[in-house]
What we know:
Layout: H1 2-19, H2 22-35, H3 47-52, E1 56-59, E2 63-67, H4 73-76, H5 78-93, E3 105-110, H6 113-118, E4 132-134, E5 138-142, H7 147-166, H8 173-184, E6 186-188, E7 193-195, H9 210-218, H10 226-230, H11 240-255, H12 260-266, H13 274-285, H14 289-302, H15 309-312, E8 315-316, E9 318-320, E10 332-339, E11 345-351, E12 356-362, E13 365-370, E14 373-377, E15 382-387, E16 390-392, E17 395-401, E18 413-414, E19 418-422, E20 427-433, E21 444-453
Parallel strand pairs: 2-3, 3-5, 8-11
Antiparallel strand pairs: 1-2, 4-5, 6-7, 9-10, 10-21, 11-20, 12-19, 12-21, 13-14, 13-21, 15-16, 17-18, 17-20
Helix pairs in contact: 5-7, 7-8, 8-11, 9-11, 11-12
Amino acid sequence: MLRILSTFFIIAWFCLSSAFAPENAIAQDDRMRQINSRMPAPLQIDAERVEAAGIRRIDGRHCAFYTDIRDDPLVDELPGVFDAAVSQWCDYFDIPLASTDGWKVSGFIMQDNERFRQAGLFPADLPQFPTGYNRGHEFWVYKQQGDYYTRHLVIHEGTHAFMQWFLGGSGSPFFSEGMAELLALHSWDGTNLVLESRPRGPEDAAYWGRPKVFRKYRETGEFPGLVEVFATPPISFQDVENYAWSWAACRFLSRHPLSVAEFEVAKTRCGIDPTEFNVRLELGLSENLPVLERDWMLYLYEQDYGYEISRGVPVPAAELTPAEVENASDEVDLACRIKSDTGWQVTTLELAEGQTIQIEASGRFVVGNSEDGPWISEANGITIDYYRGHPLGILLAGTLSNDGSIAGLIDGEAIGIGGSYTATSAGRLCLRINDSPARMDDNEGELVVLVKSGG
């Protein structure tokens, strides 16, 4: 029996040793060159020196992790997280999964970078970085205060690596960082990974904190324009705020109905010159750029955890003829249905600056849910909760200015079941239910709104 066991361990040792034998390393290098011959040479790693520095190696199919962290389930599960991300990167960028066979990078998860210097795993030519850095064959991540954010950074840097290897580059700086942030937002239950998730609150993305940036800038109203974000230079990413703008821009472009097609094309241009990348992107969006810039500003003003762009983009109101509305008089200038699960709804009614109209609303709708059941509201809203200083669900009116300004839509004026509204500028009347586009998923129903001239 002892002889059998001894034989088993010898065979096991031989198989393990073979996995790291020089000929296998050469084959691995050859396969990596086949995938992308333009990538620089990998860091040479001395296994004995690594072990002497107190750094352990944890292998996955597509990433070998090196870490000075012990007895931490977070680190032990990172190979599985990374491998699960690879198939989703392939789906997102339309890369055949089979083309990733043999692709493997190194990830360094650090508490003390001095250990990694001693082990030869932290080259002197690395730039200073506060959280993570990617260099093609390798990436470095400092362990963060929260498990979520450490995983987020691993996926972020892994996204950079994947794009460089399989797309030939990662576009311009804003696109590179925005895509890495977009895909790194994830959910993970210990077994299943979902990239590009939509966190509903800070508990879903602990220590990520990008919505704090938007709240800070809302106080001043000094948001960058969309094209301004495109032009963000690489050096600006020393400031975390530019990660927030770039993530927001990529999410916005990938979801807005006027930009989603061009965004898909942009994903295929990652290997071209960064300046040319931005030129082509702006050209592809040029026909719709004024509307996109307008909607971008509205998006930033309401940006929060859970924000859904499809619910925040202004859409045409569903208008009715007076004959379709019960008890509507001939004096009605406009009749329409206003949905409870959508933001601003733009009517065809043109208003002059200073013009006053009368608005009446009827109907009931669901504006949220709790353990006790749905919250039923009428046009006056409910005071169980408030949004932007008004009762949740109250009918709001605003003006979409003819000059493209969103000033008349930032907050809107509370109307309720009936009241007067005076246009703040020349433009079209807009109406909405007062609720955040981040919380409209469970809204149901609509109001019928009648508009008459006169003060």
